[in-house]
Amino acid sequence: MDNIILFVKSFSITPGSRYKEEGKKAHSGEEFREVFLEPQFEKAEKANVKLIINIDGTIGYGTSWLEEVFGGLSRKLGKDRVLKTLEFISVEEPYLIDDINQYIKDA
Amino acid sequence: MKKYQTTAKYKDKHQRLSLKRHRRQLLSKAKRKRKHYRQQGKSKYERGQDNLATGFKTLTAPEHFSFIEEPEKTIKFINKLENFYLKRKSVFVDLQNIKSLDHSAVAVLVSVMFSFKSRNIAFNGNFPLKKELAKILIDSGFFKYLSKPIGNKIEYTIGKENQIFARANKEVNSELGLIVMAEASTTIWGINRTCKGLQRTLLELMQNTNNHADLEEKGAKHWWLSVNHDKKSKKVYFYFVDYGVGIFESLKSKPSGNKWFGWFEKLKNKLQYGGNDEVFKLLLDGDMHMTITGHHFRGKGLPGIKEVLDRNQISNLRIISNNVYADVSEEKYFKLSNEFSGTFVTWELNEHNINAKWII
Predict the structure, then answer these.
(1) What does the pLDDT average to over A53-77?
(2) CA nearest A17 in B: which residue?
(3) Which residues of B8-35 are buried (b: 16+ CB within 10 A; e: fewer)?
(4) N or C: which end of chain B has fewer CB within 10 A?
(5) Between vectors from CA B76 to CA B74 and to CA B79, what angle results, nearest 5°?
């Protein structure tokens, strides 16, 4: 099986808050992690392939959203598992990849 | 039969009522006299203005009404308004003689007016005599909101170049950035462009208000955004304000379980002077962790906005919170002589800021 690619823009082009409760039009990180990321992560782990997250195609990210998604996953599953399976692509904001990796390690 | 009007009981009652009426008439006469005396030498317009303010506490706005240029005077004015608000006193804001006015002040004024009206406290004001200043106020929608009852939100109006927008329920609204960005980029570059720094700034500020503006409860305070387009200079100015506890009060009051508990005091002890202005610089640079723990911390919240400025995605970032005025772009941090309870942030987007192809 090939690596799995997950586009954040297929969730929303306006990712917003950390938690769902923070706004009706907030497109929260918590929601993305639970509904999109975790099922795909499980699938990738089972198939022993990489889950590649493409973070391009949105109008921008708040730091809390990124931390909740990737730091949150790391808190739940452990940073070694997360770092082993996740990879990131960004042409528009490559500097965010370093930030995300740090959120995973710091979680 | 004896007539009722001639009985002693009637006469007593009549005398009592007459005396009461007489006292009332004397009071009214004295009041009329005082008013007449006050209004002597005033024009018909001035007399009209006096009548408009009857029953209100009149508060005169600072001559140079700008949160950016005259922060201390403007904060003093806001604090007086806040006092009246807490005492539920009706306020008449006298703007007649102001000599200058900018959108930072209008943003504050509209948000204060909104707060008064949402608690059913009467709020009124007059026009500046200078026509160009009156126009700024009219364009902002200040008088429109003043003259009609408002609910708990003011909606963003697409296509309006100078406006204030407030979100009810203090929410994070990530979709707002899309409309604001489309309009701002059209003013600057003539077409829709993606400005990721703008979205980051808006999100960090909304999240900050939602999470930290109130010490007891999340999502308890409103935030306000004013967006003002200057087509001539191809710039768009943003003003964001909340009336929460402010950055330093929020930092000082972290509960014992919170990772920031006690940091504020520890940090102050490590600094040369220990003033909020010094702390703020460290906070924005993401160096607070470094000072305390020796490790750098990837900025979340306010440092996230500073990163956006450093990447040239926004310009001219200035922040006022509690007793600190930070001109972040110029790296100048000042201690103010009075305290603003809340956070005020302004920045601009111009043609030199980094932008990308529109994403839709």
Answers:
(1) 95
(2) B172
(3) eeeeeeeeeeeeeeeeeeeeeeeeeeee
(4) N
(5) 110
Domain ranges of chain A: 4-106
Question: Angle formed by the axes of helices B196-212 and B302-310, to 10°?
Answer: 160
- Report the distance separating Cα B289 and Cα B108, nearest Å: 33
A23–B172: do the CB atoms touch at under 8 Å?
yes
C-alpha pair distances (Å), B80 with each of B30, B69, B76, B93, B349: 31, 19, 6, 11, 33
Q: Which of the two residues, B144 and B43, has the higher pLDDT score? A: B43
| Dist CA B320 CA B316 (whole Å) | 13
First vs last C-alpha separation in chain B: 98
- Residue, of A60 and A22, whose pLDDT is higher: A60
From the CA of B69, how many Å to the nearest CA of chain A? 30
Report the distance separating Cα B23 and Cα B31, nearest Å.
Answer: 12
Burial of B330 (0-12, 13-18, 19+ CB in 10 A): exposed
Partner-chain contact A60 B219, CB within 8 Å: no
Q: What is the pLDDT of residues B152-181, one digit of tens each?
A: 555 555 556 666 655 444 678 889 899 999
ipTM: 0.95
Digit-coded pLDDT (tens) for B116-132:
887 888 888 888 999 99
| Spatial separation of the C-alpha atoms in residues A61 and A64, rounded to whole Å | 8
Cα A10 from chain centroid (whole Å): 12
